Amino acid sequence: MKKEEVPQDGRFLESTNLRDIYYALDENGNYCQVQSIGWEAKNEALSLTWENILDEAESVRKEVLAGEKSPLAYHIQVRLFDVGMLSAYSGISKKTIKKHLQAKEFERLDDAFLEKYANTLNMTLDELKKV
Amino acid sequence: MKIDFKHSPAAHCESGVTSNMLRFYGINISEPMVLGIGAGLFFSYMPFIRLHGMPVISFRPLPGHIFSRVTKRLNVKMKGRRFLNRDKSMRALDKLLEQGIPVGNLVGVFYLPYFPKEYRFHFNAHNICITGKENNVYVVSDPVSPTTNKLTYDELKRVRFAKGTYPPFGKMYWVKKIRTTTPDLKSGIISGIRLNCKRMLDIPLPYFGVKGIFLLASKMRDWEKKLGTKKAALQLAQLIRMLEEIGTGGAGFRFMYAAFLQEAATVLAWPELRDYSMQMTKIGDLWRNFSYEAAHKFKSRGENICSYDQLADKLVHIADEEKRFFTQLRDLVKRNERN
Question: Which homologous superfamily does the CATH classification assign to the domain defined by A49-129?
C-alpha cells in the first residue's frame, strides 16, 4: 500500500485522541508510518458488530418492558457483561446477581445496593433503573 | 513528577510500548524491528475457543510473547509483577515512578476513558506505559494515541484490575538492567526470521500458521449454509476486525512485517530482503483486497457480490503465497548463513 492510498474514512476515531497507524510506502519505496482516522471496510465490520449487539439488547429491553426481566439484565447485555464478570467487578455473588435479573427482585432493592451496580456499570442510579 | 519519556505513536500496543521503553534506555529500535525480532507475524484460527460466541481468529502471537522474545534477544533484563491487592499494586507502581522508571502496564480497554465507546470491548491485553504522576493523575503513553493521555488513580486502578477473559491482575513490567545500548541486532533479526518461518510453516496442528488459513478457507465455504446469512456475516466482520482493527498497522501485521524486512535488509546488508519486503507488501495488499470484498458483501446485503466460495478462494490464494514466501525466506536465511 502506498502512502497516498492510506484510507481516511472517519466514523469512530476522528473526534477522539486515537488514530490508526499504517505502515505504507513513500515515493521512494521506503516504509513509513501514516496516521489514519479509519477505513470504510473496517468501520462497516465494527458497525455490523454493534448493530448485532444492540439488536440482541433490544430483545432484552422488550422483556424488561413486559415486566419479565429487570433493567439490570438490559444494561449488562448492552455492555457485553456476563453474570460472572459483573460478579468479579462488583463483588456481588453470581447467585444474587441472577436473582436481581428478575424484575420483581430488582424492584425490592434499595438505592444503597443499587449504587454498587451503578458504580460497576459506570452509570447513575436513574439510568440504572430505566431502560 | 514526570519522567522525560518520548512518546511515539505506534500501530500495535505491545510492540509500541516495547520500542518506546527501549528507546528511553538508549536502544534505538523501531516498532517494525520489535515485531520482526519478536517473530510477531502469525495466524491462528481456533474454532474450539469462542469469544462472544465466535471462534477465535488472530494475526499475532499470544500477548506478551513479542515482548519477551525481543528483550531476551537484545539482552535486556526485565522485571514483571502481578498483584492480588489493588492498592499494593498502585503503591508498587508509584515507587518505581519515583525512581524515574517508566512502567509498562497490562490493562483492559473496557473502562479506558479516552477510547471511543465503540472500541470498548472486554479486551484485557492492552499495553500502556505509565510515565509520570501529578496530583493523583497519571501520565499515560498509549501507542494508539498520537499524544499522551491521562488517567486518574481510580481509573488506572480499575483498568489494571479488569475482569473477564484473562484478567491482567495489575500486571506491570519495567526494565531492570540494560547490558548494552547497541545490542547485536543482526543475530536478533536472523533468529526472529527463523522463528517466524517455523511458526508459520511447521506447527503440526491445522489451526496455526499457513495451515490455519487453509482451514479457515475450507470452513468459510460452509458458513452460510451452517450458520445462516446473519451469523456468517458476523463471523466475516469479526475476521476483518482482527485484520484491521487498531493495532495491526494494516492487513494483520503484514505491512509492518514488510517494513521490518526492509529495515533488516540494511542492517544485515542483505539486499535481497528488500525484494522480500515487496513480496510481503503484495501479500498485505491481497489481505486488504479480501477485507474490502468481504465488507462489500455485508454492506450491500441482498445483492451478492462475492460468494463465500469466492472469498475462500482468495484466502487459499493468500495461504499459497504465504507458504511460498516463508519457505523461500527460510532458504534465503540458510543460504546466507552458510556464506
Answer: lambda repressor-like DNA-binding domains (1.10.260.40)
